């Protein structure tokens, strides 16, 4: 089946809360997509609808051209790993949870699952309920990666993981995406840590999609101007400054908007360094309550 996902006016309401508000996008598939949003922006709600866990209140979502909700043929092709929650089947051993995951998904790869179990040092004989928060998250990650489903979504799956384990997750995700390309959606607010993995980025704010673009395009949408504070201030005067960092006399200002060759030459002549825009700064700018929206 082709794995593209199409959302058209997708809306999810819980009584009087509109968690997802008329979201439309097309994901062509075979990439790692970053889903970014502040707390309560609707990431989990959106992923739940994409995975067919919930019926949209309005609008539609299709995977490979087919509706998702109550369509077992399609939902079998989707794996959504939610935090550490889904793996928390107390009373079952880690081994049993993995066996069950394998039965549920025809694309499951048991050898790869075993490799990942070793990588994350998961104790197979231990009861899932007795695992630490981080280990439970790791179990969810193993299930998501080893499922090899055409659509695999990780909803803040790093919660509770220490930094070395998070980097193991990012490395494994990238290696897997290269070896077995599929549609992976990773929701997060640890943007700087994972942004290098994303090929496309979607930003949600209060249930609405405020940005969907290729990560490369976003990185080129602005610049970090670094150098002597006074010179930086002079250079960025009149530009849209998204954020600033200062260390002694050195300053780095994140500016939005393209710099043409003439401006680049001016920066170079003034001894200023120009670097790519940090996704984190763009994210903060687009989702801050008083921020301008495009
Ligand atoms: N089961 C529910 N019943 C009622 N309201 C809900 C429910 N689940 C989420 N909401 C509300 O919907 C909105 C979006 O929540 P959601 O969990 O989808 O956001 P999120 O971006 O995943 O947040 P976080 O990053 O904090 O996990 C919030 O206002 C939340 O309070």
TrEMBL record:
The keyword Ribonucleoprotein does not apply. Residues 5-231 form the ABC transporter domain. This is ABC transporter. It comes from Actinophytocola xanthii. Keywords: ATP-binding, Nucleotide-binding. It holds the Pfam family ABC_tran. GO terms for molecular function: ATP binding; ATP hydrolysis activity. The keyword ATP-binding applies.
């Amino acid at each position: 089946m082709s794995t593209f996902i199409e959302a058209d006016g997708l809306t999810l309401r819980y009584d009087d809360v509109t968690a997802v508000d008329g979201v439309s996008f097309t994901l062509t598939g075979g990439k790692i997509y970053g889903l970014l949003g502040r707390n309560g922006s609707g990431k989990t709600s959106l992923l739940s609808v994409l995975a067919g866990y919930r019926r949209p209140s309005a609008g539609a979502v299709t995977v490979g051209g087919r509706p998702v909700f109550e369509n077992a043929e399609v939902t079998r092709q989707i794996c959504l790993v939610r935090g550490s929650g889904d793996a928390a089947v107390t009373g079952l051993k880690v081994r049993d949870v993995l066996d069950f995951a394998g039965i549920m998904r025809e694309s499951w790869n048991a050898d790869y699952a075993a490799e990942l179990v070793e990588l994350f040092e998961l104790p197979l004989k231990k009861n899932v309920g007795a695992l630490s928060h981080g280990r439970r998250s790791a179990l969810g990650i193993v299930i998501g990666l080893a499922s090899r489903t055409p659509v695999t979504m990780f909803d803040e799956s790093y919660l509770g993981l220490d930094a070395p384990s998070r980097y193991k997750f990012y490395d494994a995700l990238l290696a897997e995406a290269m070896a077995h390309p599929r549609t992976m959606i990773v929701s997060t607010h640890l943007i700087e840590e994972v942004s290098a993995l994303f090929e496309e980025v979607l930003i949600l704010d209060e249930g609405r999609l405020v940005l969907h673009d290729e990560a490369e395009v976003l990185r080129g949408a602005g610049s970090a101007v670094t150098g002597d504070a006074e010179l930086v201030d002079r250079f960025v005067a009149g530009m849209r400054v998204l954020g600033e960092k200062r260390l002694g006399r050195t300053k780095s200002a994140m500016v939005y908007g393209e710099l043409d060759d003439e401006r680049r030459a001016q920066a170079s002549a003034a001894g200023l360094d120009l670097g790519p825009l940090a996704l984190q700064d763009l994210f903060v700018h687009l989702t801050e309550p008083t921020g301008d929206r495009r």
